[in-house]
Structures are given as C-alpha cells and as structure tokens.
Write a structure and sequence with these properties.
With 299 residues, this protein is an alpha/beta fold. It has one domain (3-297): Purple Acid Phosphatase, chain A, domain 2 (4-Layer Sandwich), CATH 3.60.21.10. The chain contains nine helices and twelve strands. The protein has helices spanning 3-12, 46-58, 78-84, 86-97, 115-119, 128-139, 173-188, 202-219, 291-297, and strands at 15-19, 24-28, 62-66, 101-104, 142-143, 145-150, 155-160, 222-225, 241-243, 252-259, 262-272, 278-290. The strands form two sheets. The protein has a seven-stranded mixed beta sheet. A five-stranded mixed beta sheet has the order 1-6-7-8-9. A hairpin with a 5-residue loop joins strand 11 (262-272) and strand 12 (278-290). The longest helix is centred in the C-terminal third of the chain and has 18 residues, at 202-219.
C-alpha cells in the first residue's frame, strides 16, 4: 500500500486554520476516555488532564485533539463515556462555547467520521446535563486532518492522528476493533499485550513512525501526530516530525504547545511540595523552538 499517497490525499483535503504569533494552541491526543471501569486507562490520569485543560482554558488556548479522544473500540456506547466523564465534557464544552475546540478522529474513535454517529441518540439513562453534552459532542464535526497555516510566513503544520499509515488500524479497522473488543481486552486484564496496537508493539510503532517521517522528508512538511503514544520532538537537522504523546502515560499527560511563534513539548504530572502537599504541575520536555526554523528546514 502506498501510505505516502494516502497521506498526501488526506493533506490535500484537510481543514485549514490560520494562526499568528498571538495565537495559543495546545495539541493533545490518545485520551482514550472510557466508561470509568477497570479497563478505562484514562481514569487514572483524569485529574491531571482536568488540571491541564483548566490552565489552557484560562490562558485562552485553542484545544485541538488529534484523535482517539474517546475509547469507542472497547466501549460500544458513547453515552457510557459521557456519563463517566461528564465533568471533562463540561470543560470541553467551555472551549467549544469560546470557539476554541477542534476534534480529529483516530482509529479508536473513527466512528465519529460517520454521519450515523451524529444521528444515533444517546441512551435515555443520561440525566439532562449529560444528555445535552452527549448531543453536543456527537454532532460536532470530527476532522480527519487539519492544516495550521502560520500567517506571517505561510508555513504549514499538518495535524493528523497517524493511524492512516497503519494497515490494521485503518483499512482493517473493523476487524481490529472486533479483536480489541472481544479478544485482546479480556486478555490484557491477564497481562497479554495487544499486538495490533502501535503504542504497545515496538515493531509496529517503529514502522508507523518510519512511514510518517518518510512522508515528512519526501514532501517537506511539518507534521504533528499521535497514535504511537511516544512523545517526539525533532532535534536540529532532523525531519520536522512531532508527536504529542498521550494522556494515558503512567502518571502523566503530554502535549504539544504552539504559542508566540514557537513550539514546545510539555508534560503534566502530580508533584509534591516541600510541605508534602500534592499539586499538578507542568514541565517543558523540549523546546520552545521557533516555528520558522522548521519551515525553513523543509525548504
């Protein structure tokens, strides 16, 4: 399969957003919000995620989620996710009300790309507030990709989940979803790793990254993806491929920030003050680096 051609086609029809040095944008992905049960990997980092989003909302950031926000392979009903994490969706709704929210779909929430997802009514068991949130987010447009256009230079940042270069998680997603839902999910509870996951299978992750980096090098584009869960920030001279990591790392949430014409990779985690009290803090993992360095490099 020609994965480069597929990415180029997705790039050509991607939704465009212009931004300048005054814009503040945070990119996060792979939250895998679940139903609040034992298999909900998001649940353990939920408070960290909420603290991070409260900061970004207060600081007027635009929140762009690069796919796999909701775990709709393991969970059949979106309403179960909204019911378990209504406080999270309340916060996301505040971004939406301020017109500072954009969602991409990944492989685990690929059903959001279907008109049927918006037509399917939430379960009656939701209370009025939860029902309102479920209707809002089921009817929000979910993009496959976004092109951020940097107004001062015209340079672009291509945002995509990244599963499109992963055969099992794109072309064969229905079969893979069946295996995840009915085979690997119960086995994982016994310690068996899912071989279809680019985040848990090293060889699969490496191939996915090689294909994405190959497209970046061949097309001279800056790209930010998720999918592999591995935070990536290129060094000087390397192809401008970034990865925002995930929200399900043990004890931390990672993100890519774009602000003041620069880009950085950051981590949010629980920290301990000298008096023993706990708080959620932010650390810069890499950067900030000027965007122009990457736009110039791609030429």
């Amino acid at each position: 399969m020609d994965y480069g051609k597929r990415l180029s086609q997705i790039h050509s029809r991607a939704h465009k957003l212009r931004f300048d040095d005054g814009a503040r944008i945070v990119l996060m992905s792979d939250c895998h919000r679940g139903d609040g049960g034992l298999a909900d990997t998001f649940f353990r980092n939920r408070n960290i995620y909420i603290a991070a989003l409260r900061h970004y909302h207060a600081e007027k950031f635009t929140y762009i989620e690069l796919g796999d926000g909701d775990e709709l392979w393991e969970n059949r009903h979106f309403s179960d996710i909204v019911e378990a994490h209504a406080d999270v969706f309340d916060l996301l709704a505040r971004f939406h009300a301020a017109r500072r929210l954009y969602m991409l779909f990944g492989n685990h929430d690929i059903v959001k790309a279907s008109p049927a997802f918006a037509r399917h009514p939430p379960d009656f068991k939701l209370d009025a507030r939860q029902y309102r949130l479920a209707m809002l987010f089921s009817r929000m447009p979910a993009y496959e990709a976004i092109r951020l256009v940097y107004a001062p230079t015209g340079g672009e940042i291509f945002l995509v989940h990244g599963h499109q270069v992963d055969f099992c998680n794109s072309t064969m997603w229905r079969l893979t979803r069946f295996l995840v839902r009915y085979v690997w999910r119960p086995l994982e509870s016994r310690g068996v790793k899912d071989p279809t996951s680019a985040a848990k299978n090293y060889a699969k992750r490496r191939k996915t990254e090689e294909r994405l980096i190959g497209w970046v090098s061949e097309n001279g584009r800056v790209l930010v993806s998720g999918h592999t869960h591995r935070p990536t920030f290129p060094a000087a001279g390397e192809p401008p491929y970034f990865n925002d990591g995930s929200c399900v790392h043990p004890g931390c949430v990672t993100a890519v920030e774009i602000a003041g014409g620069s880009i950085a990779l950051v981590k949010w985690c629980v920290k301990v003050r000298a008096d023993g009290t706990l708080y959620v803090g932010r650390d810069v993992i890499a950067g900030p680096a000027p965007l122009t360095a990457y736009f110039n490099a791609r030429r």
